[in-house]
Write a structure and sequence with these properties.
Blueprint lengths: L12 H15 L11 E6 L2 E7 L6 E7 L5 E8 L2 E8 L2 H12 L6 H6 L4
Antiparallel strand pairs: 1-2, 2-5, 3-4, 4-5
Amino acid sequence: MARYGRRIRLESVPSASEQAKVAAATINGKSRKIAALPWFWSDQYDLKLQIAGLNTGYDEVVLSGDPSGDRDFTCFYLRAGELVAADCINRPRDFVFSKRAITQQLHINRDELLLAGSA
């Protein structure tokens, strides 16, 4: 996967869709690499789990919310101050924000992450 500079096995619908686009390009003689941000979701009873990016190679985790409380929180993973992934539990707004911020490599204020989900 171009974004991570190595091959990665991802078993998800978004990943399968990206692979299909690469296969179609290859059949048509065009070179194309998977560059889309990996993302996943799953509903587990009353929990909505949503993941943007892969939480590998991070050097800091910013926790927004309280995992022991309402089961409504996000773990933001940063590398050198840049947001590289987010694990969102019952926080769809954080998930949408994280996907956009990671894809566009937006500068994120660490303190703002602490307040995420409370808006």
